[in-house]
Every structure is written in structure tokens, then in C-alpha cells.
């Protein structure tokens, strides 16, 4: 499988994402549902703590990826839903740290929403991975 970033500009490099990623020769695609700060029993955790919620959402996403034998370098698209952009950006480095060795960087969409499935949740992340 080959992946190639399509970046007509350079500004996205400051945020560790690509404008587009072209995948050729990939044989399997994994579409991950949104992952949030939810326990294994389905209960929301860490109310009002964006950093803790982002860490757990990323950990839950990794669990799903690993279940399918994927890892961060396979991720080509992330969608991040948040109810609070300001607080998310304060902890955006937690997401960037996961992508430091990923080339090309995945496409990332950040979406503001009024609320998530549980009112305590501040952030949710979904992914598409290809290998």
C-alpha cells in the first residue's frame, strides 16, 4: 500500500494534518465509530476534564485499531467532534503526539457540536484506517 499526501499549502504542517491523502494498493479499510471517554462498561468518565477525556478517547481508538491489527500509521482520516474548541486546543498536543511518526499525516476534520451522546462528554474521535 502507498499513501501520498496532497498538500497545496504548508500551513497545515503546523497542525500535523494533511489536506488530502491518496491511498493506492490498499486492500483493507477500517471505519471506526466515534470513540470518547467511555469505560468498558459504557459509562462516561472524567466529566469536565478535557485532557483526561481526550487521553481516554485516544486510548479507546487505539484499542479499536489494535483489535483490527491497525495502528496510527494506517490512519488516513480523523474526525474530532467537540463541544468546546478552546479547551480542545489547549490539549491538542495529546493528539499531535500520536501522529508524530505518521507519514503522511492523516486528514483531520474538527467539528463543533452542541452536545455528544452523553452530556458529560466533551470530545469524540472517529477514524478511517487503510492497509
UniProtKB/TrEMBL annotation:
GO cellular component, one term: cytosol
Pfam families linked: Ribonuc_L-PSP (PF01042)
SUPFAM superfamilies reported in the protein's UniProt record: YjgF-like
One GO MF term: deaminase activity
Family of the protein in this entry: Belongs to the RutC family.
PANTHER family registered for this protein in UniProt: 2-IMINOBUTANOATE/2-IMINOPROPANOATE DEAMINASE RIDA, PROTEIN HMF1-RELATED
Stated name of the protein: RidA family protein
Native source organism of the sequence: Hymenobacter jeollabukensis
Amino acid at each position: 500500500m502507498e499513501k501520498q499526501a496532497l498538500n497545496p499549502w504548508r500551513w497545515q504542517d503546523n497542525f500535523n494534518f494533511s489536506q488530502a491523502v491518496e491511498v493506492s494498493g490498499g486492500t483493507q479499510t477500517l471505519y471506526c465509530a466515534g470513540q470518547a471517554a467511555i469505560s468498558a462498561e459504557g459509562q462516561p468518565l472524567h466529566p469536565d476534564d478535557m485532557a483526561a477525556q481526550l487521553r481516554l478517547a485516544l486510548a479507546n481508538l487505539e484499542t479499536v485499531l489494535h483489535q483490527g491489527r491497525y495502528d496510527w500509521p494506517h490512519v488516513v482520516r480523523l474526525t474530532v467532534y467537540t463541544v468546546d474548541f478552546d479547551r480542545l486546543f489547549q490539549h491538542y498536543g495529546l493528539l499531535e503526539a500520536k501522529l508524530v511518526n505518521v507519514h503522511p499525516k492523516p486528514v483531520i476534520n474538527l467539528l463543533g457540536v452542541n452536545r455528544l451522546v452523553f452530556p458529560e462528554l466533551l470530545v469524540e474521535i472517529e477514524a478511517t484506517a487503510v492497509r
